[in-house]
Specification:
Order of helices and strands: EEEEEEHEEEEHHHEEEEHEEEEEEHEHEE
Low-confidence stretches: 330-355, 357-377, 386-395
Strand content: 35-45%
Shape: globular
Structural class: alpha+beta
């Protein structure tokens, strides 16, 4: 199974306990299942890589997609390049360019978390240019939250009320004013000016949860002009009062620590236990009898119960989405528990099946380099991004 970009489907019935995973990022919005996915926007030339990114949401039943967000910086740079080099033609889908291009401009949109209809993201733009012996670079990063229903950016006030927004925004400003001088003193001299210019932007934040309660975490938008891409300073998570929409998703969220996440239902509990680099999904029944569903690549942080509120039409759409995703991934598999798993189907579910849907992975940690622990949106790749040069190195 894949790691942070996977959905795991656990089914317990008279046939036993089964779990399957697929490289899907799913959410449930207003009772409907949707898939979030990304697509590269490639405008590359033989000696210039221009790869932006677009983010979409697709309704699994209707099949229609809506664009959530698109990078505009890279396409604009590509248009400037085309005007400056009118005799050059863009590369075709199967054409290869210079493995060490003179210009490389790429954009990434990474999903951090999904809470109900709200998606938190991090947006990076990286530009590197070789001018003879000179090298110029520019790197930008910021965060934000998008409403999956309207494809519009939202602020803290729209999520948790204006009073809460004013409180946490003022707290964030005070924290940054207290931390700024010490951070500048610890920063490389060539980056101190950029760091000293940073200010708290109320629109650059993500939604987090702790013990099923909401938090807001601000991240300062940052731009650097060094060889190293930035890690924008991330401030402390700030608890906010739960809104009505949050109460509707609370049962999807876990209790416990990162090493042991837990969801309780009448008669049984689902636990996800860290085991080294993996985590084990366990159903705990009466008298603490345990049944392992299998291992997942990273800890699960959201669970969607597939109960009577899920229509047969939605179930068919889910099955099709899993099947389609499995065709495009070598990591998808179906894991079946031992024959003893039949006991849990009969004992806990009676005549009906117990079906559980797992979403997501461990939330991204503040101030850590982007890597396997960050939830990366499943993407439709052009295959050209690898020519953008060496991987980014976070400071």
């Amino acid at each position: 199974m894949s790691g942070g970009d996977s959905t795991y489907w656990v089914t317990s019935d008279s046939a036993g306990l089964k779990m399957r995973g697929a490289p899907l990022l799913l959410a449930r919005v207003d009772g409907r299942f949707v898939e979030v996915y990304g697509a590269d926007d490639d405008h590359s030339y033989a000696d210039a890589v221009y790869v932006g990114q677009r983010l979409f949401v697709r309704d699994l039943v209707r099949g229609d997609s809506v664009e959530l967000m698109t990078d505009t910086v890279v396409p604009r740079l590509a248009r400037d390049y085309a005007r400056a080099h009118p005799r050059e033609l863009p590369l075709g889908p199967d054409e290869e360019g210079n493995p060490q291009p003179t210009i490389s401009a790429t954009a990434d949109i990474e999903v951090l978390t999904v809470h109900g209809p709200y998606l938190s993201y991090e947006y990076h733009v990286d530009i590197d240019t070789l001018l003879g012996e000179r090298h110029a670079a520019a790197h930008r990063v910021r965060r934000g939250v998008i409403d999956l229903r309207t494809a519009s950016a939202v602020r803290v006030g729209a999520l948790f009320g204006e009073a809460e927004a004013q409180r946490v925004e003022l707290d964030a400003v005070r924290e940054w004013n207290q931390r700024r001088d010490s951070l500048i003193a610890e920063t490389r001299p060539d980056a101190r000016r950029e760091l000293s210019a940073l200010v708290v932007d109320p629109s650059s934040f993500e939604i987090r949860d702790r013990a099923r309660e909401p938090e807001v975490m601000f991240s300062l938008p940052m731009e650097t002009h060094t060889d190293l891409s930035p890690r924008a300073p991330t401030l402390a998570g700030r608890p906010v009062a739960a809104s009505l929409w949050w109460t509707g998703i609370r049962e999807q969220l876990s209790t416990g620590s990162d090493s042991l996440r837990r969801w309780e239902r009448p008669g049984f509990t689902v636990e996800v236990r860290a085991e080294g680099e993996h985590a084990r999904v366990v159903l705990v029944g009466p008298a603490r009898r345990e049944f392992s569903a299998g291992l997942v690549a990273t800890p699960v942080d959201r669970m969607q119960w597939l109960d009577a509120s899920v229509t047969e039409e939605a179930r068919r759409a889910l099955r099709k989405a899993f099947a389609d995703a499995s065709l495009h991934s070598e990591n998808s598999r179906v894991a079946a528990a031992s024959a003893r798993g039949a006991w849990i189907g009969a004992r806990l579910a009676g005549a009906a099946s117990v079906r559980l849907e797992f979403f997501g992975a461990r939330p991204a940690a503040a101030l850590k380099p982007r890597g396997p622990s960050r939830m990366v949106v499943p993407q439709i790749r052009s295959g050209r991004r690898s020519r953008a040069g060496a991987p980014r190195v976070s400071t």
